Amino acid sequence: MFKNIDFNVWSGAVRTVVALDREAARGYWLSIMVSDGGAAPLTDTCHVFVEVEDVNDHMPQTEEPAYHTYVAENLPPDTSVIALRASDGDLAPSNISFAITKGNQLARFKIHPQTGALTTLVPLDREEQAEYELWVRVSDGQLSSVTPVFITVSDGNDNPPEFLEPLYRVTVPARSKTKKWEALFRVSGPLPEGLHALYLSSQTVSK
User: Fold this and answer.
1) Which candidate, 196, 194, 192, places its Cα nearest to that of 128?
2) Which of helix, strand or coil describes residue 170?
């Protein structure tokens, strides 16, 4: 006899012993024999198929528990970020949908509700915000789960270097001709996107 199904030999009742799982077994074939208990007993056999009906008991989930991806700044709207895929364990077809539930207050991203394709709504600026954390809900209409998506905005060379002052005027004393390569002054500026080279051009001013 099956471990999941029990048969009462006196009453003929067939009953389940544990909760059945459609995804584990779609059904059970039972062969039941009846006897009249006579000196030369007569018997008969019948076959019973117990079909396990499917119910929506599996939560839809994405293929990965979390996603980490990169997207370059200043790209046009509708730039692809990542495509999420999800499924559940139910045998019946599920209409899985996607939605951003957190982290998109500035409306920088959108997700296709059926395909799970995540794209940008506007060009991103790393200097404005370098990282985003979105929460994406995956739902089959009844059950749902949430998956975090971490997005890093890659830097682009879009900000020219700038001096702190447009003009520097420096007064230095006369130096001996034997002294060379002495520091006179230093100019500096913000370096928002890494190092850059400084080039010097000079012009002699006559008396």
Assistant:
1) 192
2) coil
- R_g over Cα of the chain: 37
- 60 contacts 145 by C-beta, under 8 angstroms: yes
Q: What does the pLDDT average to over 10-33?
A: 81
26 contacts 103 by C-beta, under 8 angstroms: no
The β-bridge partners of 111 are 118
Burial class (CB in 10 A: 0-12, 13-18, 19+), 119: middle
pLDDT, tens only, 104-162: 999 999 999 999 999 999 999 998 999 999 999 999 988 999 999 999 999 876 666 77
Residue type, 158: D
Strands (E), the chain: 5-7, 14-16, 27-35, 43-51, 61-62, 67-72, 80-83, 86-87, 97-102, 109-111, 117-120, 131-139, 144-154
C-alpha span between 70 and 124 (Å, rounded): 12
- What whole-number distance in Å separates Cα of residue 187 and Cα of residue 163? 7
Cα torsion through 18, 19, 24, 25, rounded to 10? 80
d(CA 44, CA 66): 59
Which tokens in the block code for residue 164?
A: 């702190």
